[in-house]
């Protein structure tokens, strides 16, 4: 999917919601446990209930890997039921020496047909570039994450005369590896106060923003400070949507939660994106 196609979907749905499919077998509604593949059945119903309200789905790969071979089967089946025009993100946080990264890229872009994969920047250019060779596929690079530990390295000040934060150096350097048509960045919703610094370095890139909902980040703040004229944001919520209810009504309640976010997004789009 291209940046323009993604923006078209955002305008059409008046939404930049990414639903996180962080499906924990321990949290599944009781009545699904008798089905052949409860994780898939849960995802299928969540997707059916939310597909018109979101523009992306982001399964966090940990939830599937932890289940062994059956987890990979559930993930593959889930990918098959995501409608074509919805952007898919493998939140896998990969990256290794070049030849290993090539195989990670093959795993997520060929064996499984994801549109994008999250990648850690710590090993540098040769660990990221193998994910950039396939047209239409995206790298989403970790830049300023939503967790408290982001302070440990990402917020270190560099003694380079500019006193930049390390995350700013990551943005500056990695922006030379790929254009805004192939690279996005993870910026936590809990980091809204730094988003203007991010936008100075990468004004046109899409930002994948986790951390609203369960982690307490503000959708309004991140939208006001982080939007560009093509929206430029995919805001993820997982637990706040998929676990809105643990009962038989889980899909209907997930829809209600997604709808509430989409309505807030519609207002933000009208306010902050000029040609909406
Ligand atoms: O900085 C980051 C990077 C990734 N995540 C992932 O996003 C979701 C958030 O889930 P919620 O339930 O909406 O909190 C999850 O998969 C994280 O691993 C992040 O939270 N922060």
UniProtKB/TrEMBL annotation:
<comment type="similarity">
    <text>Belongs to the OMP decarboxylase family. Type 2 subfamily.</text>
</comment>
<dbReference type="GO" id="GO:0004590">
    <property type="term" value="F:orotidine-5'-phosphate decarboxylase activity"/>
</dbReference>
<feature type="active site" description="Proton donor">
    <location>
        <position position="93"/>
    </location>
</feature>
<dbReference type="GO" id="GO:0006207">
    <property type="term" value="P:'de novo' pyrimidine nucleobase biosynthetic process"/>
</dbReference>
<feature type="domain" description="Orotidine 5'-phosphate decarboxylase">
    <location>
        <begin position="16"/>
        <end position="254"/>
    </location>
</feature>
<dbReference type="Pfam" id="PF00215">
    <property type="entry name" value="OMPdecase"/>
</dbReference>
<dbReference type="InterPro" id="IPR013785">
    <property type="entry name" value="Aldolase_TIM"/>
</dbReference>
<keyword id="KW-0210">Decarboxylase</keyword>
<keyword id="KW-0665">Pyrimidine biosynthesis</keyword>
<keyword id="KW-0456">Lyase</keyword>
<dbReference type="InterPro" id="IPR011995">
    <property type="entry name" value="OMPdecase_type-2"/>
</dbReference>
<dbReference type="InterPro" id="IPR001754">
    <property type="entry name" value="OMPdeCOase_dom"/>
</dbReference>
<dbReference type="GO" id="GO:0044205">
    <property type="term" value="P:'de novo' UMP biosynthetic process"/>
</dbReference>
<protein>
    <recommendedName>
        <fullName>Orotidine 5'-phosphate decarboxylase</fullName>
        <ecNumber>4.1.1.23</ecNumber>
    </recommendedName>
</protein>
<comment type="pathway">
    <text>Pyrimidine metabolism; UMP biosynthesis via de novo pathway; UMP from orotate: step 2/2.</text>
</comment>
<dbReference type="InterPro" id="IPR011060">
    <property type="entry name" value="RibuloseP-bd_barrel"/>
</dbReference>
């Amino acid at each position: 999917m291209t940046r323009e196609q993604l923006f078209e979907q955002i305008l059409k749905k008046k939404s930049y919601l990414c639903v996180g499919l962080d499906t924990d077998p321990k949290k599944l509604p009781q009545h699904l446990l008798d089905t052949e593949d409860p994780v898939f059945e849960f995802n299928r119903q969540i997707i059916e209930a939310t597909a018109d309200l979101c523009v992306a789905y982001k399964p966090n790969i940990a939830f599937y890997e932890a289940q062994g071979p059956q987890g990979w089967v559930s993930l593959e089946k889930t990918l098959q039921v995501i409608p074509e025009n919805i952007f898919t993100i493998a939140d896998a946080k990969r990256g290794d020496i070049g030849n290993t990264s090539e195989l990670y890229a093959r795993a997520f872009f060929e064996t499984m047909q994801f549109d994008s994969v999250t990648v850690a920047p710590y090993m540098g250019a040769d660990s990221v570039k193998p994910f950039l060779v396939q047209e239409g596929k995206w790298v989403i690079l970790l830049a300023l994450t939503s967790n408290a530990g982001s302070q440990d390295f990402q917020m270190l000040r560099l003694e380079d005369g500019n006193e930049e934060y390390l995350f700013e150096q990551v943005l500056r350097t990695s922006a030379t590896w790929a254009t805004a048509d192939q690279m996005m960045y993870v910026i936590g919703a809990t980091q809204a106060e730094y988003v203007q610094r991010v936008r100075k370095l990468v004004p046109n890139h899409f930002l994948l923003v986790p951390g609203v909902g369960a982690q307490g980040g503000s959708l309004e703040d991140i939208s006001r400070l982080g939007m560009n004229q093509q929206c430029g944001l995919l805001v993820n919520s997982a637990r706040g949507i998929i676990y809105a209810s643990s009962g038989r009504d889980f899909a209907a309640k997930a829809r209600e939660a997604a709808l509430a976010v989409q309505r807030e997004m519609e207002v933000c789009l009208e306010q902050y994106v000029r040609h909406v």
